[in-house]
Amino acid sequence: MKKPAVKRIISVILVLLFSLTISTVNLAGPGTVNDTLFFAQTIHKDCTPPSWFIEKAASAKATAKAKEIVKSIIKPGMDDFKKAVVLHDWVTENTRYDYNAKNCYIADGPLLDGRAVCAGYAQAYKLLCDQAKLDCKYVGGMVGKVGHGWNMVKMNGKWYHVDCTWDDPPVDTYGKDPKKSGDERHLYFGLTDTAIGFTHSKWTPNYKCDSIADNYYYRKGLLNKQINGCVEIIKDKLISGGVNRFQVTPLTNNQNWDMYRELTNSNVAYHTIATALSAKKWVFQNENINLKIDYHAGVKPYYQITPNKPKITKPVNKLTFVSPPKSIAAGASSQLICKAEPNDATYKIVKWSSSNSNIISVDQSGSVKAKKAGSAVITITATDGSNKTAYFEINVPAPAPATKPTIVQIAAGGNHSLALFSDGSLYAWGDNRFCQLGDGTNISNNKPVLIGTGFTKIAAGGWHSLALKGSSLYAWGYNANGEIGDGTIINKNTPVLIGTGFSQIAAGNYHSLALKGSALYAWGFNQYGQSGDGSNMNKHMPVLIGTGYTQIAARCYYSLALKGNSLYTWGRNGAGELGDGTYINKNTPVLIGTGYTQIAAGGWHALALQNSLLYAWGYNNNGQLGDGTNKSKNTPLYIGTGFTQISAGGDHSFALKGSSLYAWGNNEYGQLGDGTKKSKNTPVLIGSGYTQVAAGWNFTLALKGGSLYVWGKNDYGQLGDGKNTDRNVPAQITFSD
Fold first, then answer.
1. What is the DSSP letter of 13?
2. How far apart are CA 631 and CA 621, in angstroms?
3. Which among 178, 177, 179, 146 is positioned nearest to 166, based on CA atoms?
């Protein structure tokens, strides 16, 4: 055995014997074993560290290594903070805590051997800082009854504590690499005297460290989530309780802090947060307030918030409300404003209160909320000691009875019906063999069923339906010809989104029309050219037909449209329904005439208004044109004047004169509503008070006084009265809530 080894063993034995009779001081890092193997000394008030604890010059080799390290990791433009961090990280990344290492107490340990105890960590860090021209001090002190070494470093004009040893866990607690002794952290980088004082004590030298500007977690923004969270809590406390002394518990949930990956003591973090909160400018009731925020450690740590009221030199002598509301609706809120005089009063914070918080509550920011009918007196009181007050009574009126939504649009298809309410609710009923109701089934229903909400316009085709939600187009039902427009030929039993940007819709028996602004699109069955694209091929998705259109209508196998007041038609023309003087089908829009303002497409006949003048043309076997004959016409024929609204069914017609409803045409199922089943070839008055009418294939819907009335054929429940019996007079239908 070599002599140095023998000497080391003898010295260890002597130290052990000495430690049995005296109190011990350990020079150590966190989680280490008994360092009395190296050092023992009785604790006295005037105790001095052992000679080897005092900073010693590093070897020339270690100094050269430090220069090499600084040259490689210090980059141009780095401020003091960035320099101090990279040097800290080099020490913690390249050093393992080892009290058996040869040079563990000096800078050579970390720099040359990668092994050291706290004194070695601290002296190596100081040497690196010296080479980087950072002002750094080697510090000796205590951790409990254990001697310990760390650093103070000056960054951007302020002194901070930095403890590389305590930022280098002795074991790999992150679980990343079991071969590593631990991963660096930064909990003890840039601490104030108070923060490090939670764990360290009796240090020398004693420079004043009171800034958190270059605290690692504060500078990096890693505490922002917690700071901002506490700010909101403090604001809420002020609003609910006013400017009084109160406590806030530090945030501990969902922190996701880098420091919490390996953190045995959160006090330093909580103190840093408290310091940041104290430095903030606090404004309450539009007044600057001074809040002193202290962190109190313990089993249940908390922040103590204490307002510092100024010395009152000019008290408040008058309080007034600024334009307060005399009444607030139940459920509504309002922000009250008070004025304290004189304007230069020292302290103008007031206390808000309500005489009845069950009726009107008020918080300390002056925000009131009306809860139920009644009245309450709101009081403001000065808190500067003057006790000045002001009062104001606010009334909460009883709410008006809730109004039920009303029907705003109706649509009648082949054998099914749609109704749209003012709240956007869509109801459907009748034939559902082809899923045209959109309720997710193919079962017919003789009572209205809710399909959905948010709808704004509707159209019912022969066996499919269209609807808009704003500008979004939805379609459902029969789709063998692509009339839904989703690119398939599969029926859909619930509304399917087709596209956006649409403003108007119309549905024929097996085809569909829609406007995007003035651009006309068409799709579906096209055997007769009813799409208007110049072909006779079905279209499974919307196809642009042209622009400049303002109104559209479709029924059986043809289409109508207005461009301003010019009427265009296209599609099947076997009964003269296009009105162009021929019986030849057209697969592009054909101009019929001008001066038109409203159009309606029936089975094989059409109606149009020129202002209040009614014109009709097409098939007339049941008198559906209303000209007193049963002879078909292939050009528009004048019927009468004074009309305001029109609708065409399979082979019957309706028109409003103001609120007076007229009907004519086929009446086999009572679809005219005149109490008979006899067809009429001139308009017959059905009743008054009507506002809207929609004619289906053999049945009719109409609105009167906000209520829905129905009549005609009812084999599929298309009347929605819960029965399947035809009606020849209007019957009112009710909707369940």
1. H
2. 7
3. 146
Report the DSSP pairing between strands 680-687 and 690-695: unpaired
CA distances in angstroms from 184 to 168, 178, 198, 513, listed in the order given:
5, 14, 21, 69
Identity of residue 698: N
Stretch among 118-132, 151-165, 178-192, 705-719 having the lowest mean pLDDT: 178-192
Q: Using an 8 Å Cβ cutoff, are 69 and 86 in contact? A: no
Cβ burial of 727 (10 Å; 0-12, 13-18, 19+) is buried
Q: Average pLDDT, stretch 481-509?
A: 97
User: By C-alpha distance, which of 687, 617, 701, 695 is closest to 659?
Assistant: 687
Q: Where are the alpha helices (DSSP H) in 264-340?
A: 267-279
Q: State phi, psi for 455 to the nearest 5 degrees.
A: -80, 150
Tokens of 606: 């059409």
Token pair for 378: 């709101």
- What pTM was estimated for this model as a whole? 0.55
Q: Is the pLDDT of residue 24 over 70?
A: no
- Residue whose structure tokens are 């009335």: 709
- Looking at the DSSP bridge assignments, the partners of residue 320 are 339
DSSP lists the bridge partners of residue 496 as 475
Tell me the sheet residues that pair with 303.
Answer: 248, 295
The model's pLDDT over 298-309, given as tens digits with 9 standing for 90+, comes to 878 888 999 888
CA distance 698 to 670: 8
Separation of alpha carbons 636 and 656, rounded Å: 19
Please answer whether residues 52 and 105 qualify as being in contact, where contact means their C-beta atoms are separated by less than 8 angstroms. Answer: yes
Residues 530 and 587: their CA atoms lie apart, in Å, by 6
| Local structure of 684: helix, strand or coil | strand
C-alpha of 221 from chain center: 25
Alpha-carbon distance of 558 to 49, in angstroms, equals: 106
Average pLDDT over residues 330-342: 94
Reported as a pLDDT band with limits 50, 70 and 90, residue 252 is low
Beta-bridge partner residues of 306: 292
pLDDT at residue 1 greater than cutoff 80:
no
CA distance 203 to 182: 26
One-letter identity of residue 123? Q
Whose tokens are 């497409």? That residue is 601
d(CA 530, CA 321): 70
- Amino acid 549 reads Y
The residue-averaged pLDDT of 652-667 equals 98
Q: Distance between CA 163 and CA 151 in Å, rounded?
A: 6
Tell me phi and psi for residue 69, to 5 degrees: -65, -50
CA–CA–CA angle 513, 480, 487 (5° rounding): 65
Start-end of H helices in 280-327? none
Taking every pair of Cα atoms in the chain, the longest distance, rounded to a whole number of angstroms, is: 136
Q: In Å, how far are 26, 50, 122 from 166, measured between CA atoms? A: 15, 22, 11
* pLDDT in the model for residue 13: 37
Whether the predicted pLDDT of 719 surpasses 50:
yes
Q: Write out pLDDT tens, residues 580-638.
A: 999 999 999 999 999 999 999 999 999 999 999 999 999 999 999 999 999 999 999 99
pLDDT per position as a tens digit, 71-112: 999 999 999 999 999 999 999 999 998 888 888 899 999 999
**pLDDT value at residue 473:** 97
Q: What is the DSSP string of 16-59?
A: HHHHTTS-------TT---GGGT------TT----GGGS--PPP
Report the mean per-residue pLDDT for the chain.
88
Q: Structure tokens of 457?
A: 């316009």
* Strand residue runs (E) in 94-135: 96-97, 115-116
CA distance linking residue 694 with residue 677, whole number of Å: 19
